[in-house]
Amino acid sequence: MEGMELIAFNIISNVGTAKSLVMEALYAAREGLYEEAEAKLKESRQFLLVGHNAHLELIQEEALGKQLTFSLIIMHAEDQMMSVETINDLVIEMIRMYKDINQLKAVIHTDSFGK
């Protein structure tokens, strides 16, 4: 494996790991483990950055005049990268919602028991 194919698989592998970490962050937040969730999100950004850098390498090659061939593998890699970016944004918002919901539950629980 070399060239475009190697870059595509580099993107797919790294953004796939990023997606797994983003989902792990969501699951941790659901359990109220917000520090763990933040750590997972931070780690996921490192993998997403590696994927972005590999993609940028292709863009730079094309900008320098190299003719890149159409590739379903590259298309798939770009699709995966974009979906992880979207999922990441949604999960960040969902974690905020979990925090708000749990704060409200704590207030309701305190008010219900007169503490």
From TrEMBL:
<keyword id="KW-0479">Metal-binding</keyword>
<dbReference type="GO" id="GO:0009401">
    <property type="term" value="P:phosphoenolpyruvate-dependent sugar phosphotransferase system"/>
</dbReference>
<feature type="active site" description="Tele-phosphohistidine intermediate">
    <location>
        <position position="76"/>
    </location>
</feature>
<keyword id="KW-0460">Magnesium</keyword>
<keyword id="KW-0808">Transferase</keyword>
<dbReference type="InterPro" id="IPR036542">
    <property type="entry name" value="PTS_IIA_lac/cel_sf"/>
</dbReference>
<dbReference type="InterPro" id="IPR003188">
    <property type="entry name" value="PTS_IIA_lac/cel"/>
</dbReference>
<feature type="modified residue" description="Phosphohistidine; by HPr">
    <location>
        <position position="76"/>
    </location>
</feature>
<keyword id="KW-0813">Transport</keyword>
<feature type="binding site">
    <location>
        <position position="79"/>
    </location>
    <ligand>
        <name>Mg(2+)</name>
    </ligand>
</feature>
<dbReference type="Pfam" id="PF02255">
    <property type="entry name" value="PTS_IIA"/>
</dbReference>
<protein>
    <submittedName>
        <fullName>PTS lactose/cellobiose transporter subunit IIA</fullName>
    </submittedName>
</protein>
<dbReference type="GO" id="GO:0016740">
    <property type="term" value="F:transferase activity"/>
</dbReference>
<keyword id="KW-0762">Sugar transport</keyword>
<keyword id="KW-0598">Phosphotransferase system</keyword>
<dbReference type="GO" id="GO:0046872">
    <property type="term" value="F:metal ion binding"/>
</dbReference>
